[in-house]
Write a sequence for this structure.
């Protein structure tokens, strides 16, 4: 197998690692490109998979350190860049959980090294010794970092993702309630602690702060339906292995990707990405892979 063929075979795995560390598809692609050049110029590589995972991890950590300041200065709430995934991606529960908006936002609270260690250990199944070699730290140090990262993530409630038929039924009820303007009907499909987060990045109009609670979220959505959404069309899609709604202008331009996270038959999270920079590759279906590291 040639170098380009080997890299393309490993691309879904490498992209998933980089994306989960960075939360940005564009940044992940930059890391993969740089990692490919480094691998191409290297000599004596006996295990391409292990070498590329190591290079991608190190490059992703360095890249995350360089963009942290920009995210801290971001206008409004920063959300991860949504990635379009295949309709069956949600069948892999671990994958769906690890790339969900809720989990990626939790990972934003970790430092770059903590985040990489957590992702490699908890999602991809690497041992502390393997991770130590990847990030050039001792095994005891990695064990301590992993323990600290797990503790910071543990407080997050693991969401249950219903099957596709249930998701479709809930979203249909959600859209009918928005269309008819019935606050009560809309609140019936929203969890009491539902959160709605918008990301316009200062480029377009968007709520600057998260909105929490069924009634506040319902009233916010109905106000949007009466004003901003007039003349818009809505279509279904799958992003980050979760159901999503794509809102397009009358001219067909993509305006918003709204990711919908559910627990049972209730919507627990609505994540509206409107920043045009984060919608440029919204029509590209990404192949993700979290195959465990072979022992």
């Amino acid at each position: 197998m040639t170098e380009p063929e080997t890299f393309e075979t490993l691309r879904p795995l490498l992209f998933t690692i980089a994306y989960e560390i960075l939360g940005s598809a564009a940044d992940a692609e930059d890391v993969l490109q740089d990692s490919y050049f480094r691998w191409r110029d290297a000599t004596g590589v006996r295990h391409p998979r292990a070498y590329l995972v190591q290079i991608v991890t190190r490059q992703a950590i360095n890249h995350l350190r360089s963009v942290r300041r920009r995210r801290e200065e971001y206008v409004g709430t920063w959300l991860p860049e949504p990635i379009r995934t295949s309709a069956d991606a949600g069948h892999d529960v671990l994958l769906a959980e690890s790339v969900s908006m809720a989990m990626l936002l939790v990972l934003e609270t970790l430092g770059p090294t903590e985040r990489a260690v957590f992702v490699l250990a908890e999602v991809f199944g690497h041992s502390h010794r393997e991770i130590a070699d990847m990030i050039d730290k001792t095994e005891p140090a990695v064990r301590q970092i992993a323990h600290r990262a797990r503790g910071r993530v543990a407080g997050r409630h693991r969401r249950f993702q219903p099957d596709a038929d249930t998701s479709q039924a809930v979203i249909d009820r959600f859209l009918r309630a928005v269309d008819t303007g019935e606050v009560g009907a809309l609140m019936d499909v929203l969890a009491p602690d539902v959160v709605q987060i918008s990301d316009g990045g200062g480029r377009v109009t968007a709520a600057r702060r998260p909105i929490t609670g069924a009634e506040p979220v319902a009233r916010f959505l109905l106000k949007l339906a009466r004003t901003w959404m007039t003349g818009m069309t809505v279509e279904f899609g799958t992003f980050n292995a979760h159901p999503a709604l794509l809102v397009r202008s009358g001219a067909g331009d993509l305006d918003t990707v709204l990711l919908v996270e559910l627990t049972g038959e209730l919507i627990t999270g609505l994540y509206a990405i409107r920043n045009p920079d984060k919608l440029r590759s919204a029509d590209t279906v990404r192949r993700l892979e979290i195959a465990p590291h072979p022992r």
In short: Residues 196 and 270 are 5 Å apart (CA to CA). The beta strands are 84-85, 190-199, 211-212, 233-239, 242-248, 254-263, 266-273, 285-286. The chain has a mean pLDDT of 92.
